[in-house]
Amino acid sequence: MLTKFETKSNRVKGLSFHSKRPWIIASLHSGVIQLWDYSMGTLIDRFDEHDGPVRGVHFHKSQPLFVSGGDDYKIKVWNYKTRRCLFTLLGHLDYIRTVQFHDEHPWIVSASDDQTIRIWNWQSRTCISVLTGHNHYVMCASFHPKEDLVVSASLDQTVRVWDVGALRQKVVPADDILRLSQMNTDLFGGIDAVVKYVLEGHDRGVNWASFHPTLPLIVSGADDRQVKLWRMNDSKAWEVDTLRGHTNNVSCVMFHTKMDIIVSNSEDKSIRVWDATKRTGVQTFRREHDRFWILAVHPAMNLLAAGHDSGMIIFKLERERPAFSVSGDTLYYVKDRFLRLYEFSTQKDIQVVPLRKPGSVSLNQGPRTLSYSPTENAVLICSDVDGGSYELYVVPKDISLRSDYMQEAKRGAGGSAVFIARNRFAVLDRSTNQVLVKNLNNEIVKKSLLPIATDAIFYAGTGNVLCRAEDRVAIFDLQQRIAIGELQTPSVTYIVWSSDMESVALLSKHAIVVANKKLVLRCTMHETIRVKSGAWDDNGVFIYATLNHIKYCLSNGDSGIVRTLDEPIYITKISGSNIFCLDRDGKNRVISIDATEYIFKLSLMQKRYDHVMGMIRNSQLCGQAVIAYLQQKGFPEVALHFVKDEKTRFNLALESGNIQIAVASAKEIDDKDHWYRLGIEALRQGNTNIVEYAYQRTKNFERLSFLYLVTGNMEKLSKMLRIAEIKNDIMGQFHNALYLGDIQERVKILENAGHLPLAYVTAATHGLQEVADRLATELGDNVPSFPEGKTHSLLMPPAPLMCGGDWPLLRVMRGIFDNGSDMGKAGQEEEEEDAAGADWGDEELDIVDMEGVMQNGEILADLEDGEGNIENEEEGGWDLEDLELPADVDTPKAAGNSHQSLFVAPTPGVPVSQIWIQKSSLAGEHVAAGNFDTAMRLLSRQLAIKNFAPLKPLFMDIHMGSHTYLYALANASIISIAVEKGWSESASSNGRGPPALVFRFSQMDEKLKAAYRATTEGKFPDALRHFLNILHTIPIIVVDSRREVDEVKELIDIAREYVLGLKIELKRKEIKDNLVRQQELAAYFTNCKLQKIHMKLVLTSAMTICYKGGNCTTAATFARMLLESSPTEVQAKKARQLLQHCGDKKDVNQLNYDYRNPFVVCGATFVPIYHGQKDVSCPYCGARFVPTIEGHLCAVCELAVVGADASGLLCSPTQIR
């Protein structure tokens, strides 16, 4: 049984598959109906209107409907699109056992404990027939898939077949008389349906009966624990055989739609599969505790579902994936017990040789994998026969000899076998975890132990095998017997190598891992729907198929959908835009795809911009996905060529700085917000003309005025003043007058606005005496006085020296995509464009220094002029006399060995510090090497450490301590020499040991003793500092053994408990005014796991504090705890006195403390988190916190982020091996 999906729920009593979608509906004993998507494994919906168990449920074949029947005597018809019940059919007088839609007619058949079967018309919502005849509960009723028959099973020990042909003519009654006769029919049964056969033979009540989809057969299951097979013809029906094997009541039994088998389930907690022709048991699947109640068979696919006491299970009986192997232009595959050959180029399909049938009758014995050796024309076929075995066929190369080929295949045990060379194949022996290498005579040539516990092997190049374990894969070289590479992956099901063997795709159920030939990870893809197959195309893109899509995956992790699928396929080869594949029936198919999208992304990734330009020019791509992709990858200027929508074009143009396109788009959109954004971008670029235009379009006069001010355009500022006057904008007038420096205008504006004092002050300050005198007479006694002893400064703008327009623009080289879609360019321009874009990596602006060019040009001109004059210059200059050599004597070239006498400096070796970090994942060793950034990244990944400030001095100490410094010569720099751990004179110079670290685990013992001593003496701040130092040192220490790793982890726990306790105690001492909180904190301190000596002191302190606070009951509790912990005589005496004094006195104050309920103390808020309450923990020290602290820095260790994901402490090389 191949389980595809499983649910956990209440008892499942009814099941039905959707005919087209990957859905199943399950009705539960609790009254809930669940709608599941079994391909995604998700619950889509639940319907909860029935009162009591729902025993029957069924999907309509073509309409968005399903019907349910329950113990509330109601039949409900639902629309799953609108998610509601459309109507309820009432008529049955007892529990309804099953309901079913007819495939063609608008009928529903229902079976009930009221001993009747009813047929309903769901369009007219009436009962059209009542089938009476059974004299006990009717357990099930169902329509024949093609004929007008109904089969029913009852606890009266019979199976009945009913002829309902007369119902075809039946219509809804029109008048009252007919309606009356209809009512009589409803009550007493009509003659529309007649019993055709009564099948008797079961000794107990029959629980289920169902028709064969095509043959005149019926199968039934009953409480007599038997499954019976019946045959019928036009006149009679008879028992064919009885299938015995179930040990309890048979709940349900059905024929498989595609295979010649019968499936039954029972209350004996088993599902049994029977051969329908041989009438023998094939296989049995059992559950531990759950009785089975119902079966459902998918109408079109090889799927079954079974409902049991605690949910349901969807499964296949046999694998449908054909075993195949691709070699060049040929595909070898297995179909119908024949090895077949398919040529991709000619699309010829040839039958090669027949295969041996498996001896056993159990399911899933067909070929699983196929491996092919093209040189020897040999085929290895692996299957699950006899617990895993292989067969070796050597196929004649001459086609004429194949027809009578009946050579006995060479066989052997082994679940996995693959060719690893021309005439050698490897077989996995799981019992000893070794690979047996065999020749074509099936003789063992070599044995090799594998590096990991392997459950399957795959081909990985000549002489190599890829070993699969549960959580990893490794490539093993069988010649050298070494592991070449290893990679952690989810459980891998299939391996696909690229044609050049440089890349490999590892396919799991829900993930694809792409790696190189040494298993170095390139990318990982996760899928919610099952991954079925895949192949590499000619461009190195991995194309894969899920249950309902063909998708692509690039090496950088980008992926997308190529096309959707109606049914699953198994991709065999990809050639151009054609995908060759096998379907589930083993037929070869060719599917055409449009590869433009992933070729475009691949070209962009590989920087093949000629291809990108070609695609842009042909405009084969469009859509939001491509635009978003280009934006995300930093190519908005490329995206511009695809976009027609003006708003998107505008956004992209702003992003890429293309102001001309942005202006054109803004004109089309003509929206205030877009003009405003254009103005901001144009101002950033210094394009003042466009800024001015944008502000004018939005009538943003304030910004316009300021723009004219900063550009010195006084003429336009004067115009702005006049506009403000026309608009009667007083504030605008004043601002513009201020920008212009026009004092008279400012005074006039203030006077007109009624601000005479301000107008007077302005006029007087700026020396306009006449105006000031006139305003003073108007003001009379209200003339404002000027402050004494202060000099006034005039509000006058500086006069602009020149009117500034657009900023000067830099000359830049034309980008490859500028005018990319303009095809009508001259050849010379295209050449310039190609030259400009030849090296895409130069994405910065190539700024041309015009001044430099000018100067150089002048220099060159001077030189050229000068050359002619050199001869004429008599005085000064260089003595450049002609050597007067013969014309035919060439200057000799330097000989090849002329440098041999020179000293060649040796190439520097790899620094020891670099060797230390090459294969190390230990943070301490990276710190010693001076690679603080990688050390911090490791600590962040392993322990989620974020605050590195406390670690800085430790980092410096380790780095300095792992090196010694040699002062060689006075003028030479100091030589740094790495200090290795365990160095000896005899050690090889090539092999380097790990660094010697100044912090060792043995030192931690001394620090711990000092911390304990300070705690005992009551020096809590000192003790806290010691314990925190231990916590801060541990992440960067390195130990040698597993035992020491355990000790380190134990030390973290000790330090955490003390740090938490000491912080609680220090907090308590800070609080002076809150007695209740003081008592609570003292109580929480007793919850920390401390040494006995300290625990006694803590209990004594808590006992005293609570007693003084009036909480006698709590104080007595601590006294009893103290007496149980072997106290000193003084402590014991004090505790007994307190107990005697407290007696039955109660607590005065209610404390948030319950010693009976186990709890931990939150390290930040110091409140108890009781057992069962949610909490989060620090990934390093393990301190616990209330959920609100998640994401904050741990208050205990002061290093890590609370609730963050981390892989765990790594402090020893033994943890890595």
Automatic annotation (TrEMBL):
Domain spans labelled COPA/B second beta-propeller: 339-583
MF terms (GO), sorted A to Z: structural molecule activity
PROSITE patterns the record matches: WD_REPEATS_1 (PS00678), WD_REPEATS_2 (PS50082), WD_REPEATS_REGION (PS50294)
WD repeats (start-end): 47-88, 89-130, 131-164, 199-240, 243-284
Cross-referenced InterPro entries: Beta-prop_COPA/B_2nd (IPR006692), Coatomer_alpha_WD-assoc_reg (IPR047312), Coatomer_asu (IPR016391), Coatomer_asu_C (IPR010714), Coatomer_complex_subunit (IPR050844), TPR_COPA_B (IPR056176), WD40/YVTN_repeat-like_dom_sf (IPR015943), WD40_PAC1 (IPR020472)
One GO-annotated biological process of the protein: intracellular protein transport
Superkingdom to which the source organism belongs: Eukaryota
Entry GO CC: COPI vesicle coat; Golgi membrane
Keywords: Cytoplasm, Cytoplasmic vesicle, ER-Golgi transport, Golgi apparatus, Membrane, Protein transport, Repeat, Transport, WD repeat
Transmembrane segments: none
Membrane topology: Peripheral membrane protein
Subunit structure: Oligomeric complex that consists of at least the alpha, beta, beta', gamma, delta, epsilon and zeta subunits.
Biological function: The coatomer is a cytosolic protein complex that binds to dilysine motifs and reversibly associates with Golgi non-clathrin-coated vesicles, which further mediate biosynthetic protein transport from the ER, via the Golgi up to the trans Golgi network. Coatomer complex is required for budding from Golgi membranes, and is essential for the retrograde Golgi-to-ER transport of dilysine-tagged proteins.
Name under which the protein is recorded: Coatomer subunit alpha
Organismal lineage: Eukaryota, Viridiplantae, Streptophyta, Embryophyta, Tracheophyta
